[in-house]
């Protein structure tokens, strides 16, 4: 059976590009690993933030769209994006958020402690203490802990996680059903079972969640499986840093499957990730026009 290792990346929509960079690099201390454009809407930036080497499972990405109306977090969306820190790190993060006047609430679920807060555009974020991380002596965010899905049909989303993506259902606590993927980052996915408001796409909401395929062969197998099960996936698309295909689960959430390869060092060396505006080869001829029209960044 095909099994994903977990989250490859999560992509959200925000308004102000400079504010987006400032928050995720200054407050959360993530690295801007790629500055490019939305391949489908090249008048909009596409920012990628992650760990120092841009590994799958650490990447949160954004389309900063200044003129886009605000959305509403609700059903058929990723409701909460959760970052992983080592046990004993939450006191550091509580103090850090307080220094930036960011309010948070504390929670305890499935024997894990978390704090929940919002970014400047209203995206719901969480920092979770997670055992078994690679760097147990660091208080820094190490990647995704997982995500909470607000499905319009929780049973149908659960079926996709289990039977299409190969995750294991490991239990229920209150209004949350938990699944586990095979990796050690971004591997815990909760489905909220209780009703919530209908989600509306727009700034401050997640656009899609992407799952990891270890190579192009496995990626092709997923496309064939999804087609056979009538999930009507897209064709495999070239995203330069990975191959991508998209489909909707039965609960209305936009899912992507993305390959781990070739990665974010294909066009920049590790020490220079995120420094320049990187374009796909087919858009290089439009560089001057794009750079002139995109919002200026400092």
TrEMBL record:
<dbReference type="InterPro" id="IPR004360">
    <property type="entry name" value="Glyas_Fos-R_dOase_dom"/>
</dbReference>
<dbReference type="GO" id="GO:0051213">
    <property type="term" value="F:dioxygenase activity"/>
</dbReference>
<feature type="domain" description="VOC">
    <location>
        <begin position="6"/>
        <end position="130"/>
    </location>
</feature>
<keyword id="KW-0223">Dioxygenase</keyword>
<dbReference type="InterPro" id="IPR052537">
    <property type="entry name" value="Extradiol_RC_dioxygenase"/>
</dbReference>
<dbReference type="InterPro" id="IPR029068">
    <property type="entry name" value="Glyas_Bleomycin-R_OHBP_Dase"/>
</dbReference>
<keyword id="KW-0560">Oxidoreductase</keyword>
<feature type="domain" description="VOC">
    <location>
        <begin position="143"/>
        <end position="260"/>
    </location>
</feature>
<dbReference type="Pfam" id="PF00903">
    <property type="entry name" value="Glyoxalase"/>
</dbReference>
<dbReference type="InterPro" id="IPR037523">
    <property type="entry name" value="VOC_core"/>
</dbReference>
<protein>
    <submittedName>
        <fullName>Ring-cleaving dioxygenase</fullName>
    </submittedName>
</protein>
């Amino acid at each position: 059976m095909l099994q994903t290792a977990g989250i490859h990346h999560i992509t959200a929509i925000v308004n102000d590009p400079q504010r987006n960079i400032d928050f995720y690099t200054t407050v959360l201390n993530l690295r801007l690993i790629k500055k490019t454009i939305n391949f489908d809407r090249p008048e909009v930036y596409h920012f990628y933030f992650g760990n120092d080497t841009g590994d799958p499972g650490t990447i949160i990405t954004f389309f900063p769209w200044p003129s886009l109306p605000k959305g509403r977090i609700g059903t058929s969306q990723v409701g909460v994006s959760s970052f992983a820190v080592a046990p004993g790190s939450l006191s550091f993060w509580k103090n850090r958020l307080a220094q930036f006047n960011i309010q948070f609430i504390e929670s305890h679920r499935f024997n894990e402690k978390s704090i929940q807060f919002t970014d400047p555009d209203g995206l719901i974020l969480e920092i979770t203490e997670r055992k078994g991380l690679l760097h147990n002596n660091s208080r820094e965010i190490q990647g995704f802990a997982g995500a909470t899905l607000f499905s319009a049909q929780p049973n149908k989303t659960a079926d996709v996680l289990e039977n299409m993506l190969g995750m294991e259902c490991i239990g229920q606590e209150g209004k949350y059903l938990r699944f586990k993927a095979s990796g050690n980052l971004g591997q815990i996915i909760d489905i909220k079972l209780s009703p919530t408001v209908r989600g509306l796409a727009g700034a401050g909401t997640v656009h899609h969640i992407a799952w990891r395929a270890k190579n192009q062969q496995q990626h092709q197998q997923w496309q064939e499986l999804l087609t056979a099960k009538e999930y009507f996936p897209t064709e495999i698309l070239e995203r330069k840093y990975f191959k991508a295909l998209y489909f909707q689960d039965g609960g209305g959430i936009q899912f992507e499957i993305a390959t781990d390869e070739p990665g974010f060092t294909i066009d920049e060396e590790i020490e220079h990730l995120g420094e320049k505006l990187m374009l796909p080869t087919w858009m290089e001829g439009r560089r001057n026009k794009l750079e002139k029209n995109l919002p200026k960044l400092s």
